[in-house]
Amino acid sequence: MPLIGQTFNLILDGLLRHLVENGCKDLRPTHYLNVFRLMDCGGTRPTTLARRAGMTPQAMSELVGYLEQHGYVRRVPDPADGRGRVVIFADRGTRAAEISATYFAGLEARWVGIVGADGIQGVKSTLTQILADLSADNTAVEGSV
Question: How many domains does the chain have?
Answer without folding.
Answer: 1
